[in-house]
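User: quick one, fold this
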Amino acid sequence: MNNSGIQKDGTTPLAVSMQMVEKRFGDFTALSDINLAVSKGERIVICGPSGSGKSTLIRCINHIEKHDGGEIFVNGIKLTQDEKSVDMVRRETGMVFQNFNLFPHMTILENCVLAPMSAGGLSRKESVDRAMHFLERVKIPDQANKYPIQLSGGQQQRVAIARALCMQPKVMLFDEPTSALDPEMVKEVLETMKGLANDGMTMLCVTHEMGFAREVADRVVFMDKGRIMEQAEPEQFFTTPQTDRARYFLDQIIH
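Assistant:
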């Protein structure tokens, strides 16, 4: 791979390329020497203890956090501090957060049509048609005229996924999408994410749902203290982790 985020064979750009990325908050180094290459259609689960830099890593990909060193490419677009660069990268990425971030004063449909109309330049009819398509995709089209407060946490998170899909991103970023949900609501959100994975969506997901990682991920990335400690296919990671830190982590979360 060269410094444009192109694969070594010179053909398809990687979906995401991070090269020697660093991120600091004052004197604290949150990310150090991050090297990660994600192919189009690949499903990556990022795991590790709290404070290991997982969320910071994916938030740097779409410039929610500004990286302080190294290079980031998304579909061959170099992410810089320039607003045009940031806008181009954000058009390629969708992000789903821990706490839904829906606008409470807007209906579900209005939450979904806002960005395609204001940022995507679509007409209202086009935006509504697209929103209903993706609400169907996450199996809650009947909730379109309700307000977020009228929905369960699992339904709200599925709306958040539909809203992100309405901008037709090439890469989906998930930041612990089930951690704020009651246990019985986790399954419906994970099933939605599995459907996206089956459709070939490029996904980077920060999660502690190790069952999801085993079933869906092409690769598990394990982080600790702001560094990628190891990365491997799920079977290898769960059965023969290469570092003592990963072994200890798995011992704590898998019973």
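User: anything notable?
Assistant: The first helix runs from residue 54 to 61.
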